[in-house]
Amino acid sequence: MTLSNKKLHSAQIQVGKRTIHYSELGQGFPVIMLHGGGPGASGMSNYSKNIEALAEKFRVIVPDLAGYGQSTKGVDRADPFGDHANTILGFMAELGIESAHLIGNSLGGATALRMALDQPAKVQSLVLMGPGGVGTTRALPTKGLNKLLNYYTGEGPTIEKLREFIREHLVYDGAAVSEAMIAERFKSSIDPEVVASPPLRRPQGIPNFRLWDFTRDPRLLRCQIPTLVLWGTEDLVNRPNGAQQLQSRMPNCDVVLFSKTGHWVQWERTNEFNAISMAFMTEHSPA
Known about the structure:
Elements: E1 9-15, E2 18-25, E3 30-34, H1 43-46, H2 51-54, E4 59-63, H3 80-95, E5 100-105, H4 107-118, E6 123-129, H5 143-149, H6 159-170, H7 179-189, H8 192-196, H9 209-212, E7 227-232, H10 242-247, E8 253-258, H11 265-268, H12 270-283
Parallel strand pairs: 3-4, 3-5, 5-6, 6-7, 7-8
Antiparallel strand pairs: 1-2, 2-4
Protein backbone atom coordinates (compact mmCIF):
# COMPACT_ATOMS: atom_id res chain seq x y z
CA MET A 1 0.00 0.00 0.00
CA THR A 2 1.38 3.45 -0.94
CA LEU A 3 0.59 6.66 0.89
CA SER A 4 1.48 9.51 -1.48
CA ASN A 5 5.23 9.70 -1.94
CA LYS A 6 6.09 9.52 1.73
CA LYS A 7 8.32 6.84 3.16
CA LEU A 8 6.33 4.22 4.98
CA HIS A 9 8.54 1.96 7.06
CA SER A 10 7.34 -1.62 7.62
CA ALA A 11 9.01 -4.25 9.76
CA GLN A 12 8.46 -7.18 12.09
CA ILE A 13 9.42 -7.39 15.74
CA GLN A 14 9.48 -10.28 18.18
CA VAL A 15 7.18 -9.89 21.19
CA GLY A 16 7.49 -12.93 23.41
CA LYS A 17 6.67 -15.94 21.23
CA ARG A 18 4.89 -13.80 18.65
CA THR A 19 6.04 -11.86 15.64
CA ILE A 20 4.18 -8.58 15.24
CA HIS A 21 4.17 -6.86 11.87
CA TYR A 22 3.83 -3.08 11.84
CA SER A 23 4.20 -0.01 9.66
CA GLU A 24 5.05 3.52 10.68
CA LEU A 25 5.17 7.00 9.23
CA GLY A 26 6.08 10.42 10.60
CA GLN A 27 7.92 11.82 13.57
CA GLY A 28 6.88 13.20 16.94
CA PHE A 29 5.05 11.80 19.94
CA PRO A 30 3.99 8.20 19.18
CA VAL A 31 0.46 7.28 18.19
CA ILE A 32 -0.40 3.57 18.02
CA MET A 33 -3.40 2.73 15.85
CA LEU A 34 -5.15 -0.54 16.72
CA HIS A 35 -7.48 -2.01 14.11
CA GLY A 36 -10.83 -3.80 14.40
CA GLY A 37 -11.47 -7.51 14.46
CA GLY A 38 -13.56 -8.11 11.35
CA PRO A 39 -12.63 -10.89 8.91
CA GLY A 40 -9.51 -10.03 6.92
CA ALA A 41 -8.75 -6.92 8.96
CA SER A 42 -5.26 -5.47 9.28
CA GLY A 43 -3.73 -2.25 10.50
CA MET A 44 -3.07 -0.70 7.12
CA SER A 45 -6.45 -1.59 5.61
CA ASN A 46 -8.28 -0.23 8.67
CA TYR A 47 -6.48 3.12 8.68
CA SER A 48 -5.60 3.74 5.04
CA LYS A 49 -7.38 7.11 5.06
CA ASN A 50 -5.89 8.37 8.32
CA ILE A 51 -2.21 7.51 8.60
CA GLU A 52 -0.81 10.21 6.36
CA ALA A 53 -2.86 13.01 7.93
CA LEU A 54 -1.90 12.09 11.49
CA ALA A 55 1.75 11.59 10.50
CA GLU A 56 2.00 15.31 9.73
CA LYS A 57 2.48 15.81 13.46
CA PHE A 58 2.94 12.41 15.11
CA ARG A 59 4.97 9.23 14.82
CA VAL A 60 2.17 6.95 13.64
CA ILE A 61 2.65 3.23 14.31
CA VAL A 62 0.16 0.73 12.89
CA PRO A 63 0.58 -2.91 14.00
CA ASP A 64 -1.34 -5.96 12.88
CA LEU A 65 -2.89 -7.39 16.01
CA ALA A 66 -2.08 -10.99 16.88
CA GLY A 67 -4.18 -13.25 14.68
CA TYR A 68 -4.41 -10.73 11.84
CA GLY A 69 -2.45 -9.54 8.83
CA GLN A 70 1.18 -10.59 8.88
CA SER A 71 1.40 -11.10 12.65
CA THR A 72 1.50 -14.48 14.42
CA LYS A 73 -1.87 -16.21 14.52
CA GLY A 74 -3.72 -17.46 17.60
CA VAL A 75 -5.39 -15.55 20.47
CA ASP A 76 -6.35 -16.55 24.03
CA ARG A 77 -10.11 -17.22 23.82
CA ALA A 78 -10.57 -16.89 27.59
CA ASP A 79 -9.29 -13.30 27.67
CA PRO A 80 -8.75 -11.91 24.15
CA PHE A 81 -8.72 -8.24 25.20
CA GLY A 82 -6.09 -8.97 27.84
CA ASP A 83 -4.04 -11.05 25.42
CA HIS A 84 -4.01 -8.29 22.82
CA ALA A 85 -3.28 -5.65 25.47
CA ASN A 86 -0.31 -7.57 26.85
CA THR A 87 1.07 -8.08 23.35
CA ILE A 88 0.84 -4.40 22.42
CA LEU A 89 2.39 -3.38 25.76
CA GLY A 90 5.25 -5.77 24.97
CA PHE A 91 5.40 -4.32 21.47
CA MET A 92 5.82 -0.83 22.95
CA ALA A 93 8.59 -2.08 25.23
CA GLU A 94 10.46 -3.64 22.32
CA LEU A 95 10.28 -0.33 20.43
CA GLY A 96 11.39 1.62 23.50
CA ILE A 97 8.13 3.57 23.73
CA GLU A 98 7.38 4.70 27.28
CA SER A 99 3.96 6.17 26.56
CA ALA A 100 1.76 6.71 23.51
CA HIS A 101 -1.61 7.95 22.35
CA LEU A 102 -3.78 4.95 21.50
CA ILE A 103 -6.34 4.98 18.71
CA GLY A 104 -8.59 1.93 18.60
CA ASN A 105 -11.51 0.82 16.46
CA SER A 106 -13.81 -1.99 17.69
CA LEU A 107 -11.49 -4.80 18.89
CA GLY A 108 -8.63 -2.29 18.78
CA GLY A 109 -10.65 0.01 21.01
CA ALA A 110 -11.18 -2.79 23.51
CA THR A 111 -7.46 -3.52 23.40
CA ALA A 112 -6.64 0.14 24.06
CA LEU A 113 -9.10 0.34 26.95
CA ARG A 114 -7.64 -2.76 28.56
CA MET A 115 -4.13 -1.32 28.20
CA ALA A 116 -5.32 1.86 29.91
CA LEU A 117 -6.74 -0.10 32.83
CA ASP A 118 -3.80 -2.48 33.19
CA GLN A 119 -0.94 -0.02 32.60
CA PRO A 120 -2.28 3.58 32.70
CA ALA A 121 1.21 5.11 32.78
CA LYS A 122 1.77 3.75 29.26
CA VAL A 123 -1.27 5.52 27.79
CA GLN A 124 -1.17 9.26 27.10
CA SER A 125 -4.71 9.45 25.73
CA LEU A 126 -7.39 7.25 24.17
CA VAL A 127 -9.31 7.78 20.93
CA LEU A 128 -11.93 5.03 20.66
CA MET A 129 -14.26 4.37 17.72
CA GLY A 130 -17.14 2.02 18.49
CA PRO A 131 -14.96 0.04 20.93
CA GLY A 132 -15.77 -3.57 21.74
CA GLY A 133 -16.46 -4.81 25.24
CA VAL A 134 -18.82 -2.00 26.28
CA GLY A 135 -22.11 -3.22 27.73
CA THR A 136 -21.73 -6.52 25.89
CA THR A 137 -22.97 -8.58 28.84
CA ARG A 138 -26.01 -6.35 29.41
CA ALA A 139 -27.84 -7.15 26.15
CA LEU A 140 -27.91 -9.81 23.46
CA PRO A 141 -25.31 -9.44 20.68
CA THR A 142 -26.30 -7.19 17.79
CA LYS A 143 -27.09 -8.74 14.42
CA GLY A 144 -23.87 -7.28 13.05
CA LEU A 145 -21.76 -8.77 15.84
CA ASN A 146 -23.42 -12.14 15.32
CA LYS A 147 -22.54 -11.97 11.60
CA LEU A 148 -18.93 -11.25 12.53
CA LEU A 149 -18.71 -14.05 15.09
CA ASN A 150 -20.37 -16.55 12.75
CA TYR A 151 -18.11 -15.86 9.78
CA TYR A 152 -15.96 -18.96 10.34
CA THR A 153 -18.78 -21.23 11.51
CA GLY A 154 -21.27 -23.27 9.47
CA GLU A 155 -20.18 -23.41 5.84
CA GLY A 156 -17.07 -21.38 6.74
CA PRO A 157 -15.85 -18.15 5.16
CA THR A 158 -17.29 -17.10 1.80
CA ILE A 159 -17.01 -13.85 -0.08
CA GLU A 160 -20.81 -13.56 0.01
CA LYS A 161 -20.81 -13.64 3.81
CA LEU A 162 -18.05 -11.05 3.94
CA ARG A 163 -19.74 -8.79 1.39
CA GLU A 164 -22.98 -8.90 3.36
CA PHE A 165 -21.22 -8.13 6.66
CA ILE A 166 -19.26 -5.18 5.28
CA ARG A 167 -21.95 -3.59 3.11
CA GLU A 168 -24.97 -4.23 5.33
CA HIS A 169 -23.54 -4.13 8.85
CA LEU A 170 -20.09 -2.54 8.99
CA VAL A 171 -20.77 0.78 7.24
CA TYR A 172 -23.81 2.99 6.72
CA ASP A 173 -23.36 3.37 2.96
CA GLY A 174 -22.41 -0.06 1.67
CA ALA A 175 -22.13 1.21 -1.91
CA ALA A 176 -19.05 3.18 -0.86
CA VAL A 177 -17.11 -0.06 -0.30
CA SER A 178 -15.40 -1.29 -3.44
CA GLU A 179 -15.34 -4.88 -4.64
CA ALA A 180 -11.55 -4.62 -4.61
CA MET A 181 -11.56 -3.91 -0.87
CA ILE A 182 -13.91 -6.83 -0.22
CA ALA A 183 -11.75 -9.14 -2.35
CA GLU A 184 -8.59 -8.05 -0.51
CA ARG A 185 -10.14 -8.70 2.88
CA PHE A 186 -11.58 -12.02 1.77
CA LYS A 187 -8.15 -13.18 0.63
CA SER A 188 -6.73 -12.32 4.05
CA SER A 189 -9.63 -13.97 5.85
CA ILE A 190 -9.02 -17.37 4.23
CA ASP A 191 -5.36 -17.62 5.17
CA PRO A 192 -5.12 -21.28 6.32
CA GLU A 193 -3.57 -20.26 9.65
CA VAL A 194 -6.46 -17.87 10.30
CA VAL A 195 -9.08 -20.45 9.34
CA ALA A 196 -7.43 -22.95 11.69
CA SER A 197 -7.55 -20.46 14.58
CA PRO A 198 -9.99 -17.58 13.97
CA PRO A 199 -8.91 -14.57 16.05
CA LEU A 200 -12.37 -13.39 17.11
CA ARG A 201 -14.73 -16.04 18.47
CA ARG A 202 -17.36 -16.41 21.14
CA PRO A 203 -16.10 -17.26 24.63
CA GLN A 204 -16.05 -20.91 25.62
CA GLY A 205 -18.32 -21.91 28.49
CA ILE A 206 -19.38 -19.29 31.02
CA PRO A 207 -17.05 -16.31 30.59
CA ASN A 208 -15.65 -14.03 33.27
CA PHE A 209 -17.94 -11.06 32.56
CA ARG A 210 -15.39 -8.54 33.81
CA LEU A 211 -12.95 -9.64 31.10
CA TRP A 212 -15.53 -9.20 28.33
CA ASP A 213 -17.37 -6.06 29.45
CA PHE A 214 -15.53 -2.97 30.68
CA THR A 215 -18.67 -1.64 32.35
CA ARG A 216 -18.24 -4.50 34.84
CA ASP A 217 -14.65 -3.48 35.67
CA PRO A 218 -14.50 -1.08 38.66
CA ARG A 219 -11.17 0.30 37.42
CA LEU A 220 -13.05 2.15 34.67
CA LEU A 221 -14.42 4.56 37.29
CA ARG A 222 -10.88 5.46 38.35
CA CYS A 223 -9.39 5.80 34.86
CA GLN A 224 -8.15 9.39 34.59
CA ILE A 225 -6.75 9.10 31.05
CA PRO A 226 -8.14 11.72 28.64
CA THR A 227 -10.52 9.82 26.38
CA LEU A 228 -12.31 10.73 23.16
CA VAL A 229 -15.11 8.37 22.12
CA LEU A 230 -16.34 8.57 18.52
CA TRP A 231 -19.39 6.53 17.55
CA GLY A 232 -21.63 6.26 14.52
CA THR A 233 -25.32 6.54 15.38
CA GLU A 234 -26.06 3.77 12.85
CA ASP A 235 -23.45 1.33 14.18
CA LEU A 236 -24.95 -2.15 13.77
CA VAL A 237 -22.01 -4.01 15.32
CA ASN A 238 -21.48 -2.27 18.68
CA ARG A 239 -24.44 -0.33 20.05
CA PRO A 240 -24.01 3.48 20.04
CA ASN A 241 -25.31 3.72 23.62
CA GLY A 242 -21.90 2.37 24.59
CA ALA A 243 -20.67 5.95 24.24
CA GLN A 244 -22.89 7.11 27.10
CA GLN A 245 -21.98 4.05 29.14
CA LEU A 246 -18.32 5.02 28.92
CA GLN A 247 -18.90 8.72 29.52
CA SER A 248 -20.99 8.05 32.63
CA ARG A 249 -18.16 5.98 34.10
CA MET A 250 -14.93 7.60 32.91
CA PRO A 251 -14.01 10.91 34.59
CA ASN A 252 -12.33 12.48 31.53
CA CYS A 253 -14.36 11.16 28.62
CA ASP A 254 -15.59 13.28 25.71
CA VAL A 255 -18.10 11.86 23.22
CA VAL A 256 -18.86 12.76 19.60
CA LEU A 257 -21.69 10.98 17.76
CA PHE A 258 -21.75 10.93 13.95
CA SER A 259 -25.07 10.79 12.09
CA LYS A 260 -25.54 8.47 9.10
CA THR A 261 -22.37 6.63 10.12
CA GLY A 262 -21.80 2.98 10.95
CA HIS A 263 -19.05 1.09 12.75
CA TRP A 264 -16.11 2.51 10.81
CA VAL A 265 -15.99 6.21 11.79
CA GLN A 266 -12.35 6.64 10.73
CA TRP A 267 -13.21 5.45 7.21
CA GLU A 268 -16.74 6.77 6.78
CA ARG A 269 -16.08 10.25 8.24
CA THR A 270 -12.42 10.58 7.38
CA ASN A 271 -11.95 14.35 7.42
CA GLU A 272 -13.81 14.86 10.69
CA PHE A 273 -12.05 11.93 12.32
CA ASN A 274 -8.60 13.13 11.29
CA ALA A 275 -9.25 16.70 12.42
CA ILE A 276 -10.80 15.96 15.79
CA SER A 277 -8.30 13.21 16.62
CA MET A 278 -5.38 15.44 15.71
CA ALA A 279 -6.71 18.28 17.85
CA PHE A 280 -7.43 16.00 20.81
CA MET A 281 -4.04 14.31 20.78
CA THR A 282 -2.24 17.63 20.31
CA GLU A 283 -4.05 19.00 23.36
CA HIS A 284 -2.97 16.00 25.44
CA SER A 285 0.60 15.55 24.20
CA PRO A 286 3.52 16.29 26.56
CA ALA A 287 4.82 19.84 26.31
